Amino acid sequence: MTPVRSSAGPRASAAPLRCALVCGVLAAVLVTGALAGLALGAARIPLPDVLAALTGRARPGPFTTIVLDVRLPRVLLAVVVGAGLALVGAVLQALVRNPLADPYLLGISSGASTGAVLVVVLGVGAVSMEAGAFAGALLAMVTVYAMARSGTAMTTGRLVLAGVAVQYVLSALTSLVLVTSAENEHLRAILFWTLGGLGQARWQTLLLPALVLGAGLVLLLALARPLDLLLVGEEGATVLGLDTGRFRAASFVLASLVTAVLVTVSGAIGFVGLMVPHAARMAVGAGHRALLPVSALGGAAFLVLADLAARTVAAPEEIPVGVLTALTGGPFFLWLLRRTRRAEGVMG
To answer: How far is CA 64 from CA 8, 38, 52, 106, 210, in A?
Structure first.
């Protein structure tokens, strides 16, 4: 099993001043990206008009409507989804002690998408879309984790292969539903969850993801010390008083819940949970009390900028933001896999 290492050196975490500086820089990037996201798009809106709309000084008109009712919910959803995916990625990498762990690569996002699609297509009235997504995400995570373990060992090779296998099965199941469904609404829903995007952002879709993210961040910050203990290894964490089996099970459920709620509003957006935590470790070290908030801020800023690019690169056409994150995350994943192979060999 390959432990998650800090790319910043042997220290466990950065000094509080460095952490505060990194958070300040990320917050500035996030605010700048958010303002750009409100101003730029198919229709360009001058920054003074954007600020006037945000502060309530603008008169009712098309610019105000676009800013407050169309772009602001989308930017806020990008903040919530980006922060949540990066947060889950950082936690998963600690739980399985593997630098390639990510809700997308481990099939959790695909499981959530498939669960949500099945609920929509089959019309299971007693089951909500969020419940279907949660069941799919949890089942996918348990399956991958069980397939990747061999006794007490888990290598990068097994984890990646298990995640790819589960993704293929879920993709085939989703494709089967796509082929057999004659409803155009179902086809659009399946395409949305497959590619990932923020185009369906509305004020009413923001509340649940924001509440789940806030609660998840508070809980995980409270669990920062147990997550740090996992970095020293299974035996070391047990000696230090951590019930690793129970803690992992509870953390997996929490990660699956957060992922499921995010996927129901954004589809499967990949690689955010892989790239951002690694960048955060380079900046503030591996200690989770600093790593988790920095990852959340970094994920929010990254997805806001990615969504801005998705809306403007080919304007007036829009590129699904999941396509852009895959284009950037794919090469990063290959570099990280090559780096990991040097340490253990791809098949472990």
So the answer is: 45, 11, 8, 41, 24
The tokens 């892989």 sit on which residue?
274
Name the token pair of 298. 């970094």
Q: Three-class SS of residue 23? A: helix
Give, for 78, the enclosing helix (H) or strand (E): helix 72-95
Contact partners, residue 96, CB within 8 Å, separation at least 6: 1, 145, 148, 154, 159
- Taking all residues of the chain, what is their mean pLDDT, rounded to a whole number? 84
- Give per-residue burial for 312-331: e unless 16+ CB within 10 Å, then b: beeeeebbbbbebbbebbee
DSSP β-bridge partners for residue 180: none
Do residues 296 and 171 make contact, with C-beta atoms less than 8 angstroms apart?
no
DSSP 8-state assignment for residue 150? E
Q: Which residues contact 159 (CB under 8 A, 6 or more apart)?
A: 96, 98, 100, 101, 106, 144, 148
Indicate the burial class of 304 (C-beta count within 10 angstroms; 0-12, 13-18, 19 or more). buried
Determine the Cα–Cα distance for residues 1 and 97; give it in Å rounded to an integer: 7
Q: Residue 329 — very low, low, confident or very high, per pLDDT cuts 50/70/90?
A: confident
- Stronger pLDDT, 287 or 234, i.e. the higher one: 287
